[in-house]
């Protein structure tokens, strides 16, 4: 999986995907996925049947404990710090975690764990760019977006741990 910059003029579509941990909205274009966001908690009936097969395969792969094989698209060029944080977080394995400080060190910005938090707060690809795998240095859960917040972050990590290698 990787991210890339694509033209902002590409037509986009969206669909809701159901999971045991709630419903997720996926926004995509021909080039790849532009956004994934949690919509609600609990089982849901999405409209994923209108999504292309490559998204369906990636979605199913994630829930089987596999890294999805997709392109994560950005309409805007990320800063060097944002790009470094994204690349670092993409390498965190299923069910494993790094602290904001550890991500900062690996991203080449050792004195900027708060910058990592800012980048994660603006993460457009929840699940596939696994910001839920970034935690406080004390091992506690720190902010997570969406309606279920930290509870969802904890549940995602718990779900992923069954696949941890």
The proportion of residues forming helix, as a percent range, comes to 25-40%
N- and C-termini, Cα separation: 18 Å
- Quote the average pLDDT: 88
Low-pLDDT sequence parts? none
Which radius of gyration do the C-alpha atoms yield?
15 Å
Tally of DSSP helical segments: 5
The largest sheet has its strands arranged as 2-3-4
Shape descriptor = globular
Class derived from helix and strand content: alpha/beta
Order of helices and strands: EEEEHEHEHHEH
Q: Write down the oligomeric state.
A: single chain
Number of strands: 7
Please describe what this structure looks like.
The protein has about 160 residues and is an alpha/beta fold. Helices cover about 30% and strands about 20% of the residues. It has five helices and seven strands; from the N terminus they run ββββαβαβααβα. It has helices at about 55-65, 80-90, 100-105, 115-120, 150-160, and strands at about 1-5, 10-20, 20-30, 30-40, 70-75, 100, 135. A three-stranded antiparallel beta sheet has the order 2-3-4, covered by helices on one side. A two-stranded parallel sheet has the order 1-5. A two-stranded parallel sheet has the order 6-7. β3 and β4 form a beta hairpin. α2 (about 80-90) packs across α4 and α3 (about 100-105) packs across α4 (about 115-120). The mean pLDDT is about 90.
Task: Describe the structure using short key phrases.
165 residues; alpha/beta; three-stranded antiparallel β-sheet; two-stranded parallel sheet; 7 strands
């Amino acid at each position: 999986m990787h991210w890339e910059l694509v033209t902002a003029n590409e037509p986009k579509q969206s669909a809701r995907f159901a999971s045991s941990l709630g419903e997720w909205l996926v926004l995509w274009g021909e080039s790849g996925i532009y956004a994934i966001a949690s919509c609600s908690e609990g089982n849901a009936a999405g409209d994923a049947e209108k999504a292309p097969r490559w998204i369906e395969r990636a979605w199913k792969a994630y829930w089987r404990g596999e890294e999805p094989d997709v392109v994560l698209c950005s309409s805007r060029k990320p800063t060097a710090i944002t790009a470094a944080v994204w690349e670092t977080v993409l390498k965190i394995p299923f069910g494993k975690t790094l602290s904001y400080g550890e991500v900062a060190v690996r991203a080449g910005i050792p004195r900027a764990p708060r910058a990592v938090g800012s980048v994660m707060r603006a993460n457009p690809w929840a699940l596939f760019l696994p910001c839920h795998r970034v935690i406080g240095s004390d091992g506690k859960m720190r902010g997570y977006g969406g309606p279920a917040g930290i509870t969802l972050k904890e549940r995602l990590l718990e779900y992923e741990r069954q696949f941890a290698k």
